[in-house]
Specification:
Strand content: 25-35%
CATH topology of the largest domain: Jelly Rolls
CATH architecture of the largest domain: Sandwich
Helix content: 25-40%
Number of strands: 9
CATH class of the largest domain: Mainly Beta
Order of helices and strands: HEEEEEEHHHEHHEE
Shape: globular
Radius of gyration: 18 Å
Number of helices: 6
Distance between the termini: 37 Å
Length: about 200
């Protein structure tokens, strides 16, 4: 993304957000996609019956609102969870870059393809009915080669991402720990054995 930002030069815009501030709302005119530099933001969609559906909690280095590149409006809200700095990458500039065949545009397409794979994996997780298995699968997706996971955010955020109440996640985590499937120490989760 650094190459893309450099290629776009003066067209990019840096925006600082305070905790609780909204960057854009569902239905706002789309200006482009964003890159989260620091902090944390959450994407939330509102259903017609008034429910909120958390779509994704964005971590530093991730891009978001990519779907807005070819849309007239944003399809969700973006709310700041922890003081953040974001970079706006304007739609018209990115589309021009893609049309030019520039390497930075091709790198963006590769990143977007990886993002689609990640979203597919998240959808597959939500389809797992057994909450312990869903949680364990999510942790395995995040673990390093040694089987360790350091969560980027709170357990409540993870519960929302997995489509479960945080109390349910806490119980599932305790069950998995009691069953010897994982260990927890100082914010680090270690996956002990495979089911």
């Amino acid at each position: 993304m650094r190459a893309l930002k450099e290629r776009l030069g003066g067209a990019v815009k840096t925006i600082d957000l305070k905790t609780g501030e909204t960057l854009f709302r569902q239905g706002d005119a789309a200006r482009g996609m964003y890159l989260l530099e620091t902090g944390r933001v959450r994407l939330v969609r509102h259903t017609p019956d008034g429910h909120q559906v958390p779509l994704h909690t964005v971590s530093p280095g991730e891009s978001f609102a990519e779907a807005s590149l070819f849309a007239s409006e944003y399809h969700c809200d973006c709310v700041c969870l922890a003081a953040a700095r974001v970079t706006l990458l304007p739609s018209c500039e990115i589309i021009g870059l893609l049309r030019s065949g520039d390497d930075a545009g091709l790198a963006l397409v590769g990143r977007l393809a990886a993002h689609v794979r990640d979203l597919r994996a998240r959808a597959e997780l939500r389809a797992i009915r057994d909450v312990r298995l869903r949680l364990l699968s999510a942790l395995r997706m995040r673990m390093d080669a040694a089987g360790r996971v350091r969560l980027q955010g709170s357990l409540k955020a993870l519960a929302a991402e997995l489509g479960m109440a945080h109390e349910t996640l806490y119980r599932a985590l305790a069950d998995l720990q009691r069953g010897g499937h994982l260990g927890r120490h100082d914010g680090l989760i270690t996956i002990r054995k495979r089911d």
